[in-house]
From TrEMBL:
TM region positions: 20-39
Provenance organism: Malonomonas rubra DSM 5091
Database matches in InterPro entries: N_methyl_site (IPR012902), Pilin-like (IPR045584)
Lineage: Bacteria, Pseudomonadati, Thermodesulfobacteriota, Desulfuromonadia, Desulfuromonadales
One Pfam family per UniProt: N_methyl
Full protein name: Type IV pilus assembly protein PilV
NCBIfam families (UniProt xref): IV_pilin_GFxxxE
Keywords for the protein's UniProt record, in alphabetical order: Membrane, Transmembrane, Transmembrane helix
Length: 141
């Protein structure tokens, strides 16, 4: 009778995992980790691009503000230029950013000449696309 109870106890206790079940679970787990690694790479790439774009936008906004703060009779507003190098700045995380400025005196928009205005276009660029382009109008006197 004692022998029967011992055999039945060992034979009915199936609460463990087999080696095949463990291997299948580890395989599924490793595939999930690989997917997470891919998402991490995508996130880092996106953050790098966003940092570069933010730096170029801030730089272009700064140059636009410089032009808007100029007096209406400033020589920079009275002389037409195309893609003139304004500044080059090294920004941590974004690299070397170049700013080009174009000024159109008395611009023609939709067939109408706007006398007394200067159209300023600021382009901030670095090796990472896209470039940032800002265009504003400034009244001259």
């Amino acid at each position: 009778m004692m022998k029967c109870l011992l055999l039945r106890k060992f034979s009915s206790d199936n609460s463990g995992f087999t080696l095949v079940e463990v291997l299948v679970a580890l395989t599924i787990f490793s595939i999930g980790l690989l997917a997470l690694a891919g998402m991490q790479i995508t996130g880092i790439t996106g953050n790098t691009r966003a940092q570069s774009l933010t730096a170029k936008t801030a730089l272009a906004d700064g140059v636009v503000e410089e032009f808007l703060a100029m007096d209406g009779d400033d020589a920079n507003l009275l002389t037409a230029v195309t893609d003139s190098a304004w500044t080059t700045v090294d920004i941590e995380g974004a690299g070397t950013c170049n700013v080009l400025v174009s000024v159109v005196v008395d611009p023609v928009i939709d067939g109408t000449t706007h006398t007394g205005l200067s159209q300023i276009t600021v382009t901030a660029s670095n090796p990472k696309p896209p470039n940032v382009v800002k265009t504003v109008m400034k009244r001259r006197f």
